[in-house]
Fold this sequence. Notes:
The complex is a heterodimer of chains A (about 475) and B (about 500).
Chain A: H1 2-7, H2 10-27, H3 34-54, E1 61-63, E2 68-70, H4 72-91, H5 101-119, H6 123-142, H7 148-179, H8 184-189, H9 196-213, H10 221-228, H11 231-237, H12 240-256, H13 261-284, H14 289-309, H15 313-340, H16 356-359, H17 361-375, H18 381-395, H19 399-424, H20 439-457, H21 460-471
Antiparallel strand pairs in A: 1-2
Helix pairs in contact in A: 2-3, 2-5, 3-4, 3-5, 4-5, 4-12, 4-15, 4-21, 5-6, 5-12, 6-7, 6-12, 7-9, 7-10, 9-12, 9-13, 10-11, 10-14, 11-15, 12-15, 13-14, 13-19, 14-15, 14-18, 14-19, 15-17, 15-18, 15-20, 15-21, 17-19, 17-20, 18-20
Chain B: H1 3-21, H2 26-50, E1 59-67, E2 72-78, H3 82-99, H4 108-127, H5 131-140, H6 142-152, H7 157-186, H8 191-196, H9 201-218, H10 227-234, H11 237-262, H12 264-290, H13 295-315, H14 324-362, H15 373-376, H16 378-391, H17 398-413, H18 415-422, H19 424-439, H20 447-450, H21 457-475, H22 478-496
Antiparallel strand pairs in B: 1-2
Helix pairs in contact in B: 1-2, 1-4, 2-3, 2-4, 3-4, 3-11, 3-14, 3-21, 4-5, 4-6, 4-11, 5-7, 6-7, 7-9, 7-10, 9-11, 9-12, 10-11, 10-13, 11-13, 11-14, 12-13, 12-19, 13-14, 13-17, 13-19, 14-16, 14-17, 14-21, 14-22, 16-19, 16-21, 17-18, 17-21
Amino acid sequence: MMLEQIKLLMPEIIIATGICTMVLSSSIKIISSKLISQIIAAVTLMAATASAIFLLPSESQYLFDYQVIIDPLTSGLRISSYVIVLIVIFGTDVNEKINQNELFLIELFATLGISIICSAANLLIIYLGLEILALSLYTLVASNKHSIESTEAGMKFFILGAIASAVFLYGISLIYGTYGTLNIHEINSIDSTNTLETQIALGFLLCGIAFKFGAIPFHTWVPDAYQGASTSAALFLSTAPKIAAFALLYRILIDGFMAISETWTIMIQVLGILSLILGNLIAISQTNMKRLLGYSAIGHVGFIFLGISTGTKNGLESSLFYVLIYVLMMITAFMSLEVLSSKKHKVELISDLKGLNNSHPWFALIMLFVMFSMIGIPPFAGFFAKWSILTSLIDANMIYTAIIAIVMSVVAAFYYLRVVWYIYFEKTELSISQIGSSSLQQITVSCVGLFLLFLGLMPKPLLDFCTKIISSKLLID
Amino acid sequence: MNILSTIIFLPIIAALFIILLGRTKVRSGYNLALLVSFVVFALSLYIGIGFDPGLNQFQFIEQVNWISSFNIQYHLGIDGISYPLILLTTLLTPLVILTSKTSPKDKYHQYLASFLILEGLMIGVFTSLDGLLFYIFWESMLIPMFIIIGIWGGNNRVYATVKFFLYTFLGSIFLLIAIIYLYFQTGGYAITDFHTIPLTMNEQVFIFLAFFLAFAVKIPMWPVHTWLPDAHVEAPTGGSVILAAVLLKMGAYGFLRFSLPITPDASAYFSPFILVLSLIAIVYIGLVAIAQMDMKKLIAYSSIAHMGFVTIGMFVIFGLDNSLIHTEIKSLAMTGAIVQMISHGLISAALFLCIGVMYDRLHTRQISDYGGVINSMPKFAALMVFFGLANAALPGTSGFVGEFIVILASFQINPWVAFFAATTLIIGAVYTLWLIKRVIYGQTSNQKVEGMTEMTTIEAIPLVILALLVLLLGFWPAPLIEIMSTSVENLVNHIAHSKL
């Protein structure tokens, strides 16, 4: 029986083994190289993905006395996050001086954290996963040791993150005080009343969730961390943790507090609209590409929150769909920046991309794909992401919210278009003539970029995937 | 593969090849682009053989399930309203590509590819019978047009293209909301289902306004027209041609395919409002056109004024009740609107090509820099004068047919509308003929004009073809009217039935 249960945790065990192997291999001088670490990380993640696919459960299953849950959502999110981290690992520049072995090690640790959050069924287990993830991310942001900005961003991120964790933990303790349990399964089954205590507790938990997503007003770390971190670190930071944030939100709000959904949907809606409006407005004035992507991420989180705030199954599906597409878009954007950077010259400012079409038309095209996808113009994946959110909003009769959302996406169009115009309409040659990226990176970014187009033409598999993993929980509707 | 899909995707696939050929093999890219666009034109003519104008339904239907969980289908088909517009698109693209040879540009392969992709998407808009598919084609079109104006445009191109993009994007995104709303009413995205679904007046008003924002910006109607002069002035010649000839027609096509049949009661309710806006476009924008110093801007404003006739033809019909005698007048007005769309497509395309010919020689668009062009380019001057007269609706040209039918029909419905619309015969003549006088005739004030060389064969071919078509439609519009008559009648009958 125990063995059966442990078998279901195979992906986490594989990752943990991978981490140990990497630590060992790095300490042996002869075989210590970044390439070896990259290979170990890639193999580990492939094995974890394979085991997650192989162990795909057909129904929910609780392990270890309701501490851990394995259901289609767990598997779906685990598989997506492993695949995404795998892409990130492929897209990381191993020749980069600042990227030491520990970059991959930290990323694997963070993946372990994400994986734990995806399968947690107890608030303390969730907290455990959350802290593994958060501590890895602080280190990741500060990992560029020679840069003052990186250290500063890491420090800011750490302080704010620590506060958010504390608030989250306080929320957990309030929940324990009110319900007498930390088990999400039991919280859900208790006939909970919408008292002031639960509302406050939920509010605290939401602060933690919003911080993880980077929603306004818990967003201040996002642009600083994106800008300060090295591009390889930002590549990870901006993508995989969002899946963890979705899992966190789903496990707590849907699995735990669906009965009092009217309390939290309104909170989520307010956060969503705020993020949408402010994130996009502030992004207009940015000149740094990574900062721009940071604020654009806040705007995207607004969309994701709006989908969740409907409180319907369609809304959750569309939010998950949006999260996955958002992650793919961010990966492509950051990876393009990394691919275009050379040892001498980092692509940081939007103006660094001037005339890209003259020197590297292929990567210019990939950037064009990403930018139009982020605006939500068909035939790119971003269009269907926005469409699915709008569909769920209109289904839930939230037409005015939908109108705010679309007006803000027109505002957002402006700053994305500016990137396109720097790339395409400037007659100057690119300041960087030589790009120093490996062919593996170039192939990866091309594949992900083309995949955005493919998803825009054939969104059905991904839509069905989201439907399948959400519909397993028919708690709502 | 079915023929409609072929004419949509053949140009797009060819565009990918041309991009892959790269900038080193521009010549073969040009030949390929020309070949493909002519093949597409031939195929669209071939459709005409199998097209039965008497059939009261969509033809050449293609229907494949695309996203079954949301009942989204890849659903194509044409009727008498969309087929002439497809012909217009497939005719103009090869002409534009042909003329682009004389002005070799930076990144020419991307230029050719953009036009081919644009062609495929435009045909997609005219053939889609699924709401979401329509929206996808409609919106994707912004990308190549944004690129065309932005890379190969004039000095102020970035401002113009961003303005164009944001304006049209803001308008059309409301269309998406309306389409999704209709999806929840009908359970699918089929446009024909949208046509038959009953809607309350409140719903109709909201849906109509959402549609109106999208289509009025595209046409463009006063007062949301301000993006057009900028976009036209800055766009390269080919971009202006496609923009004026086809993209503007999409707004009108949207009214015919969406607003009128889906929200007939709201359309009736708003028709006085639309008529007033159209008349303002005709009179006020016509006056604005007179004052222009830039040739392209003048033609751009004249386009807005001429599109006013299209919206008048479509919305004046609500001034009549539904008795049987009136159906004929309504059909007449609607026919006039569509003839005007095609005719304006030909004439404005020709005028922009003419300006392009002059611009390639003198690199200025200011009217004051010209004068006496007839001395150095007599053959060209003859064609330009002809198109100018057509633009001023001279009888015997297609410009006359469309405007005359619209005025004729609206006179029987509301003489005041006809009266104000008819002022265009004066105002249009003023701005066009004055333009011709200052540019073509008169003393040669600019030394450089004397040095202008006569147009080359490649420049002449498209103009001659367009001139012949303008004359043909002017003297014998019957074939065009016959193609659309059943569809128009069908549409008019459909609108006559209230959805309440």
